[in-house]
Design a protein that fits this description.
The protein is of the alpha+beta class. About 55% of the residues lie in helices and about 20% in strands. It is elongated. The two termini are about 55 Å apart. The protein binds zinc ion. Zinc ion (ZN) binds next to strand 8 and helix 6. The site of zinc ion (ZN) has 8 residues, from strand 8 and helix 6.
């Protein structure tokens, strides 16, 4: 697999739009304001549909039906795929082709058309999460950008901090120590093998350290300031064990 496939990269059509609008980008999406309305536009890969999202504070069923009818009537013009909504969030997908300039033009035209319709229907932008009309800001939720209000942003931040704290408190020093020791011992055995093959490999020291911290995490060691100390102690013990074993083996081989 190519590297480009593993990393979420902004498609060329969205690159064009981002360059002309100066919107924010996260992963394969961009977020920004057109006239008075916030939009998130994403495309998961070349030739994948371009999805335009807009959260509205006061989307009522009548306005939704009017919008739907108006835009489905222009299906051909926009190469419209779907016109859906999840509660207050509209999601409109355009089929993309290889002509990035034309794709970008269709997105621009759609946004102009949408903002004109929103204005006409008296629809205003709302927070993606709570649909509130307060001032919105572009933020990142996981891999996706979104426009949310300050209160929702603060709540997200709190939840995020809560998750980090949970990991810090839930980890266990003892299982971590066992994991680190096992990792260091595995590294030491590797060291013995390598030295018996006749290589001088200083990099093995790093391998031992890596395996020790890997073991610590694998065995759910508590992530805290004590972690490097425990890992370092395990590495020292692992290296000592390897040396003792080396001496013992040489004594057995050559008494
Ligand atoms: Zn909100």
């Amino acid at each position: 697999m190519q590297k480009g496939h593993l990393m979420a990269k902004l498609g060329r059509t969205l690159q064009l739009l981002q360059a002309s609008w100066n919107w924010k980008q996260h992963g394969t999406s961009i977020v920004g304001k057109q006239a008075d309305w916030w939009f998130v536009i994403g495309q998961s890969g070349a030739l994948q549909p371009i999805v335009v999202g807009a959260a509205l504070a006061n989307l009522d069923p009548v306005s939704l039906e009017q919008l739907k009818a108006a835009f489905l009537a222009k299906k051909k013009l926009y190469k419209l795929g779907r016109f859906d909504n999840k509660n207050h969030v509209l999601s409109i997908s355009l089929n993309a082709d290889l002509f990035t300039d034309k794709n970008a033009d269709r997105v621009r035209l759609l946004l102009e058309d949408l903002t004109a319709s929103f204005r006409q229907l008296g629809l205003v932008s709302g927070c993606l999460l709570c649909a509130g009309e307060q001032a919105l800001h572009a933020v990142r939720i996981g891999e996706n950008p979104a426009a949310v209000c300050d209160a929702c942003h603060a709540r997200l931040q709190e939840q995020f901090n809560g998750i980090i704290e949970k990991n810090e408190q839930q980890g266990n020093y003892l299982t971590g120590l066992i994991g680190a020791l096992l990792g260091a011992l595995t590294g030491s055995v590797l060291w013995l093998l390598v030295s018996y093959l006749g290589f001088y490999a200083s990099i093995v020291g790093f391998v031992i350290a890596f395996l020790a911290q890997y073991g610590y995490r694998l065995f759910k060691g508590r992530v805290s300031r004590a972690m490097p100390l425990i890992v370092a102690a395990s590495v020292v013990l692992g290296v000592l064990a390897a040396n003792v074993a080396e001496v013992a083996i040489s004594l057995v081989q050559d008494p």
